[in-house]
Design goal:
There is one protein chain. By secondary structure, the protein is α/β, with parallel strands linked by helices. It has one domain: Rossmann fold, CATH 3.40.50. It has a 5-stranded parallel beta sheet with strand order 3-2-1-4-5. The longest helix has 16 residues.
Length: 132
């Protein structure tokens, strides 16, 4: 399973060649995204307008949207606790990476690979990551 991060989805909408090439090279893969990524997309859409739910989801009808579940929350709690235990990571940094941590928890729970242009943001969470 390939869990597409928000960066991938934004670049998909922009028609980036790298995204088209990635999708073509991985045409047999199962693709999904997290409802958390949909939330991030919705923020961007609301900044510039007043989109409906259908407006936000329209470009991604080909994707399975995985809702954030209790098992994801438990995994995220474990991952965040590990950050708190690392004295080199301050609380402001933990707060800054919360979105990525939640998406990484979905990937870890589903044994999925996160597909992103921000691989370094996810590698710290010990999940499989692919760039495009």
């Amino acid at each position: 399973m390939k869990l597409l991060d928000t960066t991938f989805l934004v670049d998909y909408e922009r028609g980036e060649d790298a995204v088209a090439e990635y999708l073509e090279a991985n045409e047999d893969a199962d693709f999904a995204t997290s409802s958390l990524c949909i939330k991030e997309l919705a923020v961007g859409r609301h900044v510039v307008g007043d989109p409906t739910r259908a407006d936000v989801l329209a470009p991604y009808g080909w994707l399975d949207v995985v809702p954030f579940r209790t098992d994801h929350a438990v995994a995220a709690g474990e991952m965040e606790a590990e950050l708190h235990a690392d004295e080199s990571v301050n609380r402001d940094r933990i707060n800054a990476v919360t979105g990525d941590l939640l998406i990484a928890a979905v990937a870890r729970t589903m044994d999925a690979t996160v597909v992103t242009n921000n691989g370094e943001d996810f590698e710290r969470f010990d999940v499989a990551v692919e760039g495009y």
